[in-house]
Amino acid sequence: MILYPVQSLHRAEAERLINSIGVEKEAVPLLTPKALHLNIKISSLKSSWANIIKQEMLACGGDAAINRGCYACSVKESDVILMGTQANFARFISKMKMQPDCFSELTQSIERIIISSTASDKLKDFMVIGVLNVTPDSFSDGGKYNNYDDALKHAEQLVKDGANIIDIGGESTRPGSQSVSLQQEMDRVLPIIEAVKKKFDVGLSIDSHKPGVIRAALKAGVKMVNDVSGGTAVIETSDDIIKHNASVIIMMNNTKDDVIGSVSKENLQDPVHYFLNFCYETNSRLLKLGHKEERIIFDPGIGFGLSDEDTSVLLRNMSSAIGSGFKVCMGLSRKSYLGRSTGLNVDERDGVSNAISLYLMRDGVRIFRTHDVKGLSSVIKFFKSVEGRY
Questions:
Q1: CB 317 within 8 A of CB 276
Q2: Model confidence at 320: pLDDT above 50
Q3: Domain that holds residue 303
């Protein structure tokens, strides 16, 4: 006899696990939700509500952790951690729908997380975004592709290696870099955008925080805007982005007073909460402006005002963002964080970049911005082979 723990991260895994021991076919859909355990954290809930939530979860076979002051109502608010299987949560949702209407928004939010967290087809298709910097000073490849012929050759290689999208940037945001003028940035990127669009069957993205560059790039044919300003540029150009049916990557930027990369010496109190709050608030604002939710992607902004500890915490908890229903793009490729944690030089970091990408794929991340398209494409093939569900 051998005993060992098993972990089910999504519905398909749970179904395979249950089917593997030969249970009755009719029992599989009944047993599967019981194999999917979830923890859901709610921040700043009224103490009276927290008490009700805990009692309802207990009645449904789950539990909830609340502040000890809730019982005597000595605190006004409490964070709450809901704990249970998907089956527990299904009963909980059903009971909460019988509560007064004031609970409806909270109940709907919890239901959305349950569906997103256990879905077996979370962003099933991968998106590989290849980096093409037509700059003399980018941190990894500055000066390599800042002339027309070299840029086109690299674009061709990115396509051959498996890039779905090429992200073209004309201004470096590495620590210590200098801003360039609007005209200079447009002179760098527009000829390359037009040439790549004409020569290759690949999606195009503009990596810029200047509204003028974004508008010109959209007219030239890009279908994605990669905004490192935390959404400021996307909000200003929303009408143009919507008109051209383009997607957006909104990068959280925690730098002070600028968009230039930096490393913070101070840790955020709760990096996961900070990032999710950014996602919820920005998503709501963009939806009100007319953006389609399926076209909104978030980037946690590694290297932009986060400490190394913040970055590590975010990497360990990307499943929280995916489970909340957000699309996440990871732009970790060759970042200085990797150099500080491994001692590797910038041109030696592709292997560890791809290893971390594999780690994140398990948490549901499906969109990656990378310098090493060939290596990452091979990792994705390996992941699909191991998962056996693609």
A1: no
A2: yes
A3: 127-387
Among positive and negative, which fits the CA dihedral 225, 362, 44, 113?
positive
Report whether 247 contacts 295 (CB < 8 A).
Answer: yes
Concerning whether 369 is annotated as a catalytic residue, the answer is yes
Whole-number Cα distances in Å, 119 to 14, 21, 38, 213: 11, 22, 12, 38
Establish if 5 belongs to a structural domain.
no
Over 70: is that where the pLDDT of 122 sits? Answer: no
Q: Do 107 and 96 form a contact (C-beta atoms < 8 A)?
A: yes
139 vs 285, more confident: 285
Give the integer Cα–Cα distance in Å for 379 and 375: 6
Do residue 152 and residue 188 come from a single domain?
yes
**Separation of alpha carbons 362 and 146, rounded Å:** 36
pLDDT at 266: 94
DSSP track, 162-201: T-SEEEEESS--STT-----HHHHHHHHHHHHHHHHHH--
More confident residue, 119 or 68: 68
Q: How far apart are the first and last CA of the chain?
A: 33
How confident is the model at residue 121, as a pLDDT? Answer: 55
Instruction: Give residue 115's pLDDT.
Output: 85
Q: Is residue 172 part of a domain?
A: yes
Give the number of domains in the chain: 2
The answer as to whether 289 is a domain residue is yes
Residue 257 shares a structural domain with residue 354: yes
Clarify whether residues 132 and 263 are in a common domain.
yes
pTM of the model: 0.89
Indicate which residue of 91, 335, 349, 366 is catalytic: 335
- Residue 333 contacts residue 372 (beta carbons within 8 Å): yes
Q: Which of 369, 374, 381, 389 is catalytic?
A: 369
- Residue 335 known to be catalytic: yes
- Please check whether residues 133 and 113 belong to one and the same domain: no
User: For strand 77-85 and strand 37-46, is the pairing parallel, antiparallel, or unpaired?
Assistant: antiparallel
Of 81, 83, 70, the C-alpha closest to 36 is 83
Classify strands 63-65 and 77-85 as parallel, antiparallel or unpaired.
antiparallel
In a domain, 1, yes or no: no
Count, residues in the chain:
390
CA distance 379 to 386: 11
Bridge partners (DSSP) listed for residue 127: 367
- Same domain? For 372 and 286 the reply is yes
Residue at which a domain ends, from 66, 90, 118: 118
